[in-house]
Specification:
Blueprint (H helix, E strand, L loop, with lengths): L25 E8 L5 E7 L16 E9 L3 E9 L5 E3 L1 E2 L3 E3 L7 E3 L5 E4 L5 E4 L10 E6 L9 E8 L4 E8 L3 E6 L1 H5 L13 E8 L5 E3 L4 E12 L2
Antiparallel strand pairs: 1-2, 2-3, 3-4, 4-17, 5-16, 6-15, 7-15, 8-12, 9-10, 9-11, 11-14, 12-13, 13-17, 14-15
Length: 234
């Protein structure tokens, strides 16, 4: 999870990459079960306890919680509340890694026609004119047009023909999505990715990033949700 900023967006060069909370200990704050075999677990960072200091770089009064609902599908809900006295500009992402048979053989539906910013080409902007395929590597933020009224939800589908599987990702509270895979060359320089591990996953991240930032006034809240459903390919 990237919070309360994605990468170092809007931050100084010394800021923690993707925000500090992903390196914190989280604790379960609530557990709920339902009659249809679902269980929901709510989490909060331990540092939000009044007995602990405010996490470096995160303003006092900014509160985050994550709820994960497990059943036949997976639902993640990331909620931010501003209990402070100042405006906060929020960027974030649900940093999801999906196991795939071969990253260079999958495709992603729902991106065609979207403008994206390419971090592997000096932040050059382009349009996804053809169906998405990985190529050598990818680090892009795709943007839906910020129109009025703002669309409530978006759908992306990871298609894996070798595993005969589709993963449908329905997102609410977001007008951007990040697609990332380091590729073979970049993976060889990353200590936490095996040299050949890059081909085993694809990141599709429900996000508020790029121009899609959230202006949280005091007392405001924002919810980012993704619903993930695996399906057998037809």
């Amino acid at each position: 999870m990237c919070w309360p900023w994605f990468a170092k967006q809007g931050q100084t060069s010394s800021a923690a990459q993707h925000g500090p909370v992903r390196n914190l200990t989280w604790q379960i704050s609530a557990i709920h079960t339902s009659c249809d075999d679902e269980v929901s677990l709510s989490f909060e960072p331990v540092s939000q306890s009044e007995s602990l200091p405010v996490t470096a770089g995160v303003p006092a009064g900014l509160h985050v919680s994550l709820t994960i609902t497990l059943g036949d599908t997976l639902r993640q809900t990331l909620q931010t509340r501003n209990h402070g006295s100042d405006l906060f500009v929020l960027s974030q992402a649900l940093h999801s890694y999906y196991a795939v048979s071969d990253a260079q053989r999958i495709s992603i539906e729902g991106l065609q026609g979207l403008t994206y910013t390419d971090r592997l080409r000096d932040l050059k902007q382009d349009v996804q004119r053809s169906p998405f395929a990985l190529g050598q590597a990818c680090d892009r933020t795709y943007e839906h047009r910020l129109e009025s009224p703002v669309p409530r939800s978006h759908r992306y589908t990871l298609v894996d023909p070798d595993w005969q599987r589709r993963i449908v990702i329905d997102v609410e509270g977001s007008q951007s999505v990040v697609v990332w895979n380091p590729g073979q060359v970049n993976a060889s320089t990353m200590p936490d990715v095996p040299d050949d591990g890059w081909s085993d996953f694809m990141c599709i991240e429900a996000a508020n990033a790029g121009p899609d930032v959230i202006h949280l006034q005091p007392g405001d809240a924002h919810t980012l949700t993704q619903h993930v459903e695996p399906q057998l390919a037809c």
